[in-house]
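Data availability excerpt. The first of two example chains:
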Amino acid sequence: MKSQVDLGVPIPPHKALVTRVIKQVTKEQRERALQETEYNVFSFPSDLLFLDFLSDSGTTTMTDLQWSALFHGDESYGRNKGYYVLLDAIRDVFERGDSPKKSIELLLSGVDDVERLMNELYLVPYEEGFVNGGIHQLDRPNAFIVPQGRCAEFLLFSTISKILHKRDSNLEYYIPNNGHFDTTEANIVASGLHAVNLFDKNIILEEFPLESVEMSNPFKGNMDIRLLKEFIKEISLEQIPLIYLTITNNTAAGQPVSLKNIQTVSEISHENNIPLFFDACRFAENAYFIKLYESDYRSWSIKKIIQKMFSYADGFTISFKKDGLANMGGGLFFRDKGVFQTNFSENSDIGTQLKVTQILTFGNDSYGGLSGRDIMALAAGLYEGTKESYLANRLRQTRYFAKELAIREIPVILPPGGHAVYIDMNRFFEGIDMKIEDYGGLGFTIELIRHFGVRSCELGPFAFEWDQKTNEQREGILNVVRLALPRNAYETSHIDYAVAAIAELYKNREKIPKVEIARGRNLPLRHFQTGLKPK
């Protein structure tokens, strides 16, 4: 008899405890809702959908351990107990590798030894990592909790912009990245800085053999090292306050970044005394790709790979709503006594300046706009979302989705990333009169809701404001629609329905309408609130 690993099918990773009934909404009802919400997919009521692939951000299904942690939430205004647990969970995940302390178990197991709690959790004076502790988090704060990733981006870029323009208001400042996502770019621009994308979209759109999807990965999300070196040579170093690396690269079709690329970018950064920051949006998925496809790390644990990845960074912003970690939360962290702290603490400590902004905008530092329940669920989620079994199932589901689309000759970008599948709209409409400015991706998203009750997201010329960019800036814009998979929310039958719906649209793609912007063309992050009109 075959063993469980020889059956040729994956071992089920979880089972459902609670279900949510999907309402049987008619096409006519969805048409009415589309009209009354100006055809903006972000404004369409989620309760009227069958499937929702708009985003995986905060849409995760929490595990039983996260739900149990939630009941331990402490809603105290100052220094709630979850604050200490969360900070130590961050040390565990990003710094300690295979030697985590798991201080969360002190609270979840009901330890009431006060001296032990004080000595092991509440008063421990950590320093020189991403998360200072005890007195060092007071005099040199370097860990900032906020509601979500874009809040961390605002906190970082608005603060350093003030410092930079005080130094020299006549200079232009640039943030190079392998692919700024929409909110990242918007926060950089709103702070008076310039966002620069350094990836080759031709590599991302290169055809990849379907039969090789599970065997190899070219790490299409990498920073283009040649372009980075050329960019650094073109302008003065004082005009580059940070180098930013997004892992995985959501703008570039959710593609992973290799550890070799991370190391090379870090070496270039530090040779030029420029801090390297991660947009760590899906760091755990990225670590799993490294384990699978970089031969030097196949025997490493996910924990050890994450530790290695972050050893190259001076700091990171993160949305904890990604990677299936939690429904709410974000953060900004930087290395104590590192390059970033040194470069930006000329008059007063940069951490203290960031803390002032945090308290003014999001709340006291130990809750940062989150409830105590959110904080405890997040602390538990950091361990849950970095388990190899969870990551394997997540990638398996994304692969299945992408392969089923590719089998039907729908031009999905291969290999798929970890959190979503991306459809290449240029190839989708090949042979049909659909120009970039006709926003065919928007027409696709509207028709997918209208006919089939499935929501997706255009992340191309509309979302990234192609009509307002220079020719050079347009080189960093893909013409794609993303279908992001919320963690553990959908089964194979859900994916099969979505595949059938997309295939039917593809057969009838000549009927998909062109779309014009009816209201709010020049709004920042316009895809969240602009009014649209199918032609």
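And the second chain:
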Amino acid sequence: MNQKIAIIIGAGPAGLTAAYELLKKTDIKPIIFEMSSDIGGISKTINYKGNHIDIGGHRFFSKSDRVMKWWKAMMPIQENRSGEVDITYHNKKAAVQVSEDGPNPDKLDIVMLIRSRLSRIFYLRNFFNYPISLSLDTIVNLGIIRIIRILFSYIYAVVFPIKDEKTLEDFMINRFGRELYNTFFKDYTEKVWGIRCSYISAEWGVQRIKGLSIMKTLIHAIRKVFKKDSSISQKGTATSLIEQFLYPKLGPGQMWQETARQIQSKGGELHMNSYVKYLKSVDGKVKAVTVLNKETKEEANYEGDYFFSTMPVKELIESIQGDSVPHNVQEVAKGLLYRDFITVGLLLKKLNVKTRRSRNAQTMVPDNWIYIQERNVKVGRVQIFNNWSPYMVKDPDKVWIGLDYFCNEGDELWSKADDEFADFAINELVQINFIEKEDVLDSTVIRMQKTYPAYFGTFDKFHLIRDYTDKIENLFLIGRNGMHKYNNADHSMLTAMTAVENIINGKKSKDNIWLVNTEKEYHEEI
């Protein structure tokens, strides 16, 4: 009997998880095709002259017990002299033993670090807690008059909420009040998406910040006075308030590189620089794919029994041949939009910006990333890679940061040459007194296409695509771009795990795959 084959498009978290689960639980052989030369998709790590760049920032924590166990099995947690780490699941704590003889990150690379989390907002040349709290610093920085307006605005939103939440603007005003929304959320969110919040579906807010509000922030602050949660998973805490997480020593791409290595060692195939041009569909099933090798320019056909797609839905629909794709499905696919992403890595002697919470007020602030709310610059976030993992920086005496820009392929930002863009980014940080130009030692520019699937364009008709693809029995849409759904890495993994389970159990419906990341308890920040 011939071995069954699963064709997997994409070597990101979803695709690699699907391949690993197939090898672990079935006799199906996975063959993975990755268009680029990198492992990990948008969760990859770039090594630039020994300095590592995390594209967009990836904290390893999940409300899913299954995902947490999967991560820890793939990369064990670093040595811990206390002998145990408390991890909270379903509001129950479990002590995970971590031996002093466990992985030492100074000696071994395949190790998960335990990291502290701090993300703040930089606005009016000052730092604000994220989420916003009514601390003394916040009151001083904003001023008592604006604080009063924020409070009354929130009370008004509670008493007179917008009843028909259609847009992201409606969603945020109902949870934060119009004044706080205008102060901290509107400009940044429109910087991310490039359009007004009133044009974005409320569903985006439901997926990304559904657990956060002023009231929950206040409750969390009160609880912190009496009890500090030292757990990693922190099941009872909204994601935006989580204060600890796991992180691979050399960045998130290390997790997926190790996963790829294990997949290949177990008999799976991985083909890099391989672009899937066509999917051949016959009688409601995908039979084969045509793959273009980007280096040799040769095309080859691969037959399979199951097909997992993490490629952008727009491209997937365009690639289907054989069975006729309904015209309305084609039109919806053509109208799907994406937001692209540019990261500028800067190696510095020091940072100019200072904070009272700095470990070293001369060179460092303690944040993992900082939301740049200043309206006169286009940079959206600044990551400080030293604080993600000290091992990501070649010279510990230098500061290694990433500037995150949101743009559209072909627009003014995207079209800048790399040198021009690096100068532009440096000047923006100088403009807001974040750095001094003479402290810049080196720079690099990295571009990522289709990083964020947009909740506008033809998204309101996406159900037509889902209805069509769900009927293709052996095709499984998984992951962020594969589902045009703003999933985190753990959500993407769960979609892959669920799809594999459906195959094992002979389950035809794909509803449970689409239900991932709709649960009420999972919350995420912008």
